[in-house]
Structure formats: structure tokens, C-alpha cells
Amino acid sequence: MKTTKCDYLIIGSGAGGSSVADYLLESGFSVLMIEEGDDYSSDNVPESALDGMTGMWRGGGLTPAFGSPTVTYAEARCFGGGTEINSGIMQRVPASILAEWGAISDEDQDFYNNKIHSHYEWVENTLNANVLDSSQDQHSQILKHAGESQGWRVESLPRAMTGCSCKQPLCVCGGKQAMTATLLKKNLINKKFSVLPRTRAKKLIFKNSLVTEVIAEESSSQGSTSKIRILPTTVFLCAGTIHTPHLLMKSGVNFPGLGRFQLHPTLKILAHFKDPVNAARQPLPNYAITEFMPDLRFGGSVVTPGVLGMAFAENWDARSYLKDQLDYLASYYVMIRPKSWGQIRSFKFAADPLVTYMLDSQDSELIAFGTEKLSNALFSVGAVSLHPSIKNHGGWETINSVKVDMLNKKLRDKLNLMSIHLFGSCSPLNNPTFLLNNGRIKGISNVILADGSCLPSAPGVNPQATIMSLARRNVIKYCEK
User: Fold this and answer.
1) Which of 202, 323, 334, 449 is geometrically suited to a Cys-Cys bond with 370, CB 3.0 to 4.6 A?
2) Same structural domain for residues 410 and 282?
3) Catalytic amino acids?
């Protein structure tokens, strides 16, 4: 077994891991980063978002959280993590939620009420976050006009984007300021920074409250695997909301509350218009309807032939005619900040965890309320028919049919919900005895958590800016000590 030593080991290269690496390297430390996925930032750049799904997305982009209804969530598995597959939307958590998080402890109160904003500024400046001009993008304008038609608050969404030339819903030309285009690109020229791609941490070995070894599995481009033993001084665990607690559990760390997580349950609505929209050749909508925030938000979703094909498959008989109407289709979503929590469980001989998520009645009612509201707004701006992500659903042509269906509680079990936002699986709210602030775990001195698992609960907005802010806080606090 190959053995390597390092001072700082970072497990995961996404928003959290890249932020940690940046601070450590700026401070003059040596860093080793391991990433389970491959690097798609140079010669391997996919021609489209769909082409990249099999490589860049875990499980091809479709992983179920079992429950009723099932929620499909998306995780990245590539160099740069979720920043490579998301839309680059940069949002700050609403003040009301920051106040909730600040109630965890006195130190948290000071951070969430005050200091977090300097970290947000660092994120926004680092990633060139700005509001893009979408005045010529029909996909964006429809959502904006839909909100305004109801007298609702509509806000522009800053995005980590500069110089995009491909005009695809998910930029693939390098204009998106993902980690491989910003922090990782900046730091890869640093001789103190080493990266092992296609390397998955399998187990942490503990001795006297310290991680003394990390056993990892390295995969070659041909598919063969070999074990590697890493001897770190300090480990920053940034494997993501699902796989950070999973690795801890596989390493013998377990206590009540670990792996209890939240996501943003999201219902998509495919809208058919009588006039062309051309959404597949436009950036993702840069607006959100925020009238009902922080509990409910409406936004624009990806429209590509592959994604549309999955929507058609929910009821091919009723939707197959839309395959000849691709330029007339737009996609929007209803996203909620839930009350319910899911659970991540690990088993001895299973490589991946079992993930479950049960939507409670309040969340179900909120989705129904939001679906009716958004549908009415879309009809008001000219939608001919609406096709929600509900199994075997025939679609809606009037708002009355929406209202009838949303009163049908049996129909809610057929919702095809999805989420790309996951968080809170190592939240201090779930066990303040063991899960401490600043990413620490009681009884483990040299492991610091710095990813989406650290968010106390669902933020109600796109989480990347907050993940980066908390990761930077955690590494700064560790270095101060």
C-alpha cells in the first residue's frame, strides 16, 4: 500500500474544500487535497450539461432519497464539486434565518448577525458575482412578468459568471466562475498544493482522539483501483452533505443527530406557450419571485432536450406531442424551505449510504400552495398548458384544474420532487453536545468540517455563498487556535 504524509489533508474539492485550501495556502501551509471524481476543467470539458452528467454527477445526476413522495437529489462527483454543475447563483441567507442560526450560541450570534457579511463579500468578489443582463432572454422575462402580473416582489439573482459565450442554461464555456475557474485555478500553480483526483477516502483511523491515518482508494483512468494510506496532521472534511457524515459513520463515529439533514424540496412545472421562448439557447433565468420568502420561492429551471425528455417520460402519452414544440417550452419551479428532515444511514458492507426523506404535512401543503400560485401567474402571462413533475399527470390547461388537483392529498404522493441543495447533516442544531460550532466534533481534535453539512438548517436560498463563508470561518478559527 502506498503511503504519503501531509500537514493538511482536505477531503473534497467543492465550494467548502476549495475555500479551505485557499486560506491555508495564503497562510503559507502545505496542502494535499483528494477528490473522488475526475477533472473536467481542461481537455475533458463536456460539450453540454447533459454530456457531463454521467461523469460529473454522482449516479448520473439521479439519486433517490426514499420516502413518500420520493425526492431525487443531485450531487457532483468531480474536481470543483457542486460548483461545476450548479447555476452559480450567489445569494445571502435572509436576516430572519441568520437570526435563527445566531441563537445557537453567543459566538454564533456574533458571526451570523455581523461577521458573516465580510465573508459573503469575499465570496462575491472572488467569484465575480454580478447581475447579468437578461432583458433579451424570454425565459427570464416570462418569470419576471409573471411575478409582476400578480403584484409580487421579483428580485434579480447575482451569478458567478463573466464572459459566457455559449449561452447554454448551464454555462460550459468557462464563463461560470466555478472552483476550477477561480480558487483551484489560482492555487494549482502553488508548489505547496497537491491534488489527487479519482481518490476516495474510505476510512478515518483514530488514535487518542486524533485521526492518524486516512485509508483511500485511488482509481486509474482505465478503471483499476489501489489503496493509499495518508498520514495527515489535520483533516478538513469537505465531502459534502451526504458523504461527510457517511465517512464519519464508516469510520466508527456515530451519535444521535449525525446524518440528519435537510434539502429544498422542489417541484418543476413545464410551461407550454403559443409563442417561441427558445429557453434551451438562453442562460438560466436570472430572476426569482421572492414574495413568499423565506419559506417559498419561484424560479427558472434548466431546459435542455435531455431534461425535457425526463419530463416527457413522466406521462409520455399526454406529453409526447411536446417533442415537436421544444422552442415553445419553458421550465419553472416551486422551492420550499422545509420543516421536515431526512436521515443518512451507513451500513458496514455498503459503499454508499441509505438516504431517506419524509415530507411532513406542512411541507406538502406549502408545495400545493406554491404550485397553485405559480401556475396562476404563468397562465396570466400566456401559458397554454402546464405540466407539473407529477407521475402520470395529464397536465393543466386552466387554473381551476390546478386547484382541484392541489386539494387531492393522494396526488401529492405522486410528486416527482427534486433538489440540488442539501445541508445540515452535521448541524449543531441536531446534537449541540457533539456537533460544535466552527465545524468541530467533540472528542476529535484534528478533524474540521467545512462544507454544506455545517449549515445549521435549510437557508431558503442557493447555498454556495454560505457554504464558502462558513468553510472560510471554520479554517480561520482553526488556524487562530
Assistant:
1) 334
2) yes
3) 421
Question: Taking 80 as the threshold, does the pLDDT of residue 61 lie above it?
Answer: no
Question: Which cell goes with 129?
Answer: 458575482
Residue 63 domain-assigned (yes or no): no
Q: What's the domain count of the chain?
A: 2
Task: Tell me the per-residue pLDDT of 236-251, one tens digit each, with 9 for 90 and over.
Answer: 999 999 999 999 999 9
**Hey, which bits of 274-397 come out as E strands?**
287-289, 296-300, 329-336, 342-345, 354-357, 383-388
| Cβ-proximal residues to 402 (8 Å cutoff; 6+ apart), any chain | 371, 372, 375, 376, 386, 396
The pLDDT of 276-298, averaged and rounded, is 94
Provide the pLDDT confidence category of residue 164 given band limits of 50, 70 and 90: confident
The domain containing residue 462 runs over which residues? Answer: 2-39+78-88+91-126+178-256+424-480
Answer whether residue 54 is part of any domain.
no
Instruction: Please tell me whether the overall predicted TM-score, pTM, comes out greater than 0.70 for this model.
Output: yes
pLDDT in tens, 210-239: 999 999 999 987 878 999 999 999 999 999
Q: What is the rounded CA–CA span in Å between residue 380 and residue 317? A: 27
Q: Residue 205's beta-bridge partner residues? A: 213
Give the SS3 label for residue 475.
Answer: helix
Last residue of a domain, one of 368, 396, 419: 419
Model confidence at 276: pLDDT above 60: yes
Please report the DSSP string for 273-296 in residue order: ESS---GGGSPPP-EEE-TTTTTE
The CATH number given to whatever domain includes residue 245 is: 3.50.50.60
Residue 361 domain-assigned (yes or no)? yes
Closest CA to 255 of 67, 443, 101, 424: 443
Shared domain check, 143 and 121? no
Residue 46 has pLDDT above 90, yes or no: no
Residue with cell 491515518: 213
Residue 299 to residue 452: CA distance in whole angstroms:
22
